[in-house]
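Table S2 (text version). Query chain:
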Amino acid sequence: MIVLVGSQKGGPGKTTVAVNLAVQYARQGKDVCLVDADPQRSAARWHADREEQGHQPAIACVEKIGSIHQTLQDLATRYDVVIVDVAGKDSKEMRTGMTAADQLVVVVRPSQFDLDTLGHMSEVIEQAKDYNPTLDVRGLITQAPANPSVTERTDAGEYLADFPAIRPLETVIYERKAYRDVVGEGLGVVEWNNPKAKAEIEELAAELMG
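Corresponding structure-token output:
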């Protein structure tokens, strides 16, 4: 199972989603490989911190820039789950990753700037599906305001529905300090003391495998 986490814009928390999914699947007993295909190397640095702290379960990490299609196919024969983090832009890594992935998780914040990228993203997805017609594309809203009086989350969900190439996920990732707190520790929120954040990642991991 290859899960590619991508977006057309920086800042929506792709790496946060990728590393937290990796931890959750590893805690389920799966062999997990995290692929950092972003030149910023955020996922690789998180992984180095995790190894240095000796946290279990262990997660493998591979760094690969450029065409990643063959690398992902090879890793998929050796691991139960391959989680791929690419840069927040239209890149060679994202495009070649789409041709190998089973799932693409398009990460967007409930902001107009993020939502405006979905038109181009849909075009890239359609091109990728010429090579990988079974690619399952899901839309994930992240950093949603936890304040129940703010309607951004609902508005964003309705906007996502306008792009048939991207199926909205039921799970929403809310703005929570816990996601920032765990990064420097090499941990996931499912290993932390915030039950709401933990539940979000557990639900997301289950929904993607469902």
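Notes on Table S2: The mean pLDDT is 91. Residues 2-209 form a domain with the Rossmann fold fold (CATH 3.40.50.300).
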